[in-house]
Design brief:
With 502 residues, the protein is mainly beta. Strands 20, 21, 23, 25, 26, 27 and 29 form a seven-stranded mixed beta sheet that branches. Strands 10-9-12-17-14-15 form a six-stranded mixed beta sheet, with no helix packed on it. The chain has a five-stranded mixed beta sheet with strand order 22-31-30-24-28. The radius of gyration is 22 Å and the shape is globular. It binds copper (II) ion. Copper (II) ion binds next to loops.
C-alpha cells in the first residue's frame, strides 16, 4: 500500500515539525466503529474514509493539575491537524458521541451547503450518538480550520466555548514558500464565565476613525437602556489561556536553531477573544492572512488576530535565547497565553519583553496602487446592539433584524446572482468590535475606516467600534450563504443573516 506509507510519512513529518499539533492515526488503523448513522446513511459497505473525527467530552490537561472536561475532536485539543491537497477530494467520517446534535464547519473553504456545517444553510446535523460521512474537494490552498457551528447561548460548555476547534492546511498545487519548517499554533481559552461588561481591547485598530453619527446612535441607545434600569449585557471571561491546549510553561517548547526560517501558522480558535502575539527580539514576516497570500509579505512586530482569524508568518530565528512567544496583554499571558521558543543550546528561564506600541492596520497589508473593480451591487448593513435585551444578554441586529434564535431556517435577507461582484458596506453602531465572517466565499478588503485598500483576501474582518468597513466578494459558489459575527455571544443572539442565490 504505497499510498498508506506516503500518507503516514507525511503526517509524521508534519507532526515532527509542529509544536504540540496532534498526530492523526494513519488510515486503516483508526478505531472508529463504522455503524449506520441515525440520519439514515449506512456506512458498513463503504470504503474507509480518509479521516475520522469523533466528537466526545473528555478530560484534557491544560497544565499540571489543571484537568478540564471539554468536548473535543478525537479526545485532544486542538483537533488533529488535517492536511489536504488542493483539489483532491477527501472523505471524512464524523462521529458524534455527545447527547446533542452537532455541526462541523469547514471555515474558509469553498464547499457546498450540504457539507459546510451550518444548520442555517440547511446542512444536516450530525445526530447525537450518530455518524455522518461527508466528502468535498478542499479549496482554496492555505490555512483553514474546522470547528463546531452550534449556538451555545447561555451554555458555556457548548459551541466554540468547547474544544471543538482544529487546524486545516490545504497544500497548494505549487509550493512557493521559502522556509525550513512549519509550526501550527492554535490559540484558545478555557473555563469561561459570564460577567457584566468586558475588557475587550479596542485600541489596536488603525485607522481609529469613528463615525460620529454611529457613535451618537450607539451611545444614545445605551444611555436609554441604562436609564430604564437595565444592567450592562453579559460578556464572557476565562480562567485558562492556552496555545495548542497548554498553558504557558506546561507544553513542549518550540525548538529552533539559529538561522532557521520558521513558518508560523497561527489560528485564533477563541469563541470570543481577540489575541495579540509578540516574540521578543524577533519580527514576523506576514505572508498570508486567513490562508490567502498577501500581495507581498509585510514585516510587523506584533500579530493581532480577531476571533477566527489566521495568520501565516515567517520568523527568522536570528536572536538566540529562550523566549516567550506570548500575548502582549500581561494578564492573559500570566494566565497561560504563550509558548516557549527555545534555541538549541540556549539556557536559562524564558524571557519576555514587551514590544513597542503598534497598531494593526489592514490597509498596511494591501496594495494601494491597484484599483478595485466596481461592484455590480452594494448592500448596506447597519449593526446595532440592544443592551441586555435577551435575559441579560445583548441582542444584535443587522438592518434592524435579529436572526431568529430557535428557527434555523430563516428567510434569506440578501439576494445574489452568480458571477456578480457585490460590496458590503458595513456600519457598526456599537462600541464592540466584530469579527465579521462570510461562509463559503473569500472577500477582498476595499475600505477600512475610510481608508481605501485592495488585494487583501480574507474570510473574517474585524470591524471596529463605531467604524465602517467595506468588503467585496464575487458570487461564485451557489447556495445559501451565512454571514455572521464570529464572536459566539454575538452570533448566538441575532448577529447573523443569510444570502441566497437567485
Ligand atoms: Cu460581533
Amino acid at each position: 500500500m504505497p499510498e498508506f506509507h506516503s500518507t503516514r510519512r507525511k503526517f509524521l513529518k508534519a507532526a515532527g515539525a509542529t509544536a504540540g499539533a496532534a498526530l492523526l492515526t494513519p488510515p486503516g488503523l483508526r478505531g472508529l466503529p463504522i455503524v449506520g448513522g441515525k440520519d439514515g446513511s449506512t456506512l458498513q459497505n463503504e470504503a474507509p474514509a480518509d479521516y475520522s473525527l469523533t466528537i466526545a467530552t473528555k478530560p484534557i490537561e491544560v497544565a499540571r493539575n489543571r484537568i478540564l472536561s471539554v468536548t473535543t475532536y478525537n479526545g485532544e485539543f486542538p483537533g488533529p491537524l488535517l492536511r489536504f491537497k488542493e483539489g483532491e477530494r477527501v472523505t471524512i467520517d464524523v462521529r458524534n458521541d455527545t447527547d446533542t446534535p452537532e455541526q462541523l464547519h469547514w471555515h474558509g473553504q469553498f464547499v457546498s451547503t450540504d457539507v459546510d456545517g451550518a444548520a442555517e444553510e440547511r446542512t444536516p446535523f450530525i445526530p447525537p450518538h450518530g455518524n455522518r460521512r461527508i466528502s468535498f474537494v478542499p479549496r482554496p490552498a492555505g490555512l483553514r480550520f474546522y470547528h463546531t457551528h452550534v449556538r451555545a447561548r447561555a451554555d458555556l460548555a457548548a459551541g466554540q466555548y468547547s474544544g471543538l476547534v482544529g487546524p486545516v492546511y490545504i497544500e497548494p498545487k505549487q509550493n512557493a514558500g521559502n522556509y525550513d519548517r512549519e509550526v501550527f499554533l492554535t490559540l484558545k481559552e478555557f473555563q469561561p464565565t459570564l460577567s457584566r461588561g468586558g475588557d475587550m481591547p479596542m485600541n489596536f485598530l488603525a485607522p481609529a476613525r469613528e463615525v460620529p453619527a454611529l457613535k451618537d446612535a450607539g451611545e444614545n441607545r445605551m444611555k436609554a437602556s441604562l436609564a430604564k434600569g437595565m444592567p450592562h449585557g453579559y460578556e464572557v471571561g476565562y480562567d485558562s489561556f492556552t496555545i495548542n491546549g497548554r498553558m504557558l510553561g506546561h507544553g513542549e517548547p518550540v525548538r529552533v536553531k539559529a538561522g532557521e526560517r520558521v513558518l508560523l501558522h497561527v489560528l485564533n480558535g477563541s469563541a470570543t477573544e481577540i489575541r495579540s502575539l509578540a516574540l521578543p527580539g524577533h519580527s514576523f514576516q506576514v505572508i498570508a492572512m486567513d490562508g490567502n497570500l498577501l500581495p507581498k509579505p509585510v514585516r510587523v512586530p506584533v500579530l493581532w488576530l480577531g476571533t477566527a482569524e489566521r495568520i501565516s508568518a515567517i520568523v527568522e530565528m536570528n536572536h538566540p535565547g529562550i523566549w516567550i512567544l506570548g500575548d502582549t496583554a500581561d494578564d492573559d499571558r500570566h494566565h497561560g497565553m504563550g509558548i516557549v521558543v527555545e534555541y538549541a543550546r540556549a539556557q536559562g528561564k524564558p524571557q519576555w519583553t514587551p514590544p513597542a506600541p503598534f497598531k494593526w492596520s489592514y490597509p498596511h497589508f494591501g496594495n494601494p496602487s491597484v484599483a478595485v473593480a466596481q461592484p455590480d451591487e452594494v448592500f448596506d448593513m447597519l449593526f446595532e446592539k440592544q443592551n441586555a435585551a435577551l435575559d441579560g444578554f445583548n441582542q444584535w441586529t443587522i438592518n434592524g433584524v435579529a436572526f431568529p434564535h430557535e428557527q434555523m431556517a430563516a428567510a434569506p435577507a440578501f439576494r445574489l446572482r452568480e458571477g456578480k461582484r457585490y460590496r458590503l458596506r458595513m456600519r457598526n453602531a456599537s462600541d464592540d468590535i466584530h469579527p465579521i465572517h462570510l461562509h463559503r466565499h473569500s472577500f477582498e478588503l476595499t475600505r477600512i475606516a475610510g481608508q481605501p485598500t485592495a488585494g487583501v483576501m480574507k474570510d473574517v474582518v474585524m470591524v471596529g467600534g463605531y467604524q465602517e468597513a467595506e468588503i467585496d466578494f464575487v458570487a461564485d459558489n451557489p447556495g445559501l450563504t451565512l454571514f455572521h459575527c464570529h464572536q459566539q455571544l454575538h452570533m448566538d443572539f441575532g448577529f447573523m443573516t443569510l444570502f441566497e442565490y437567485v
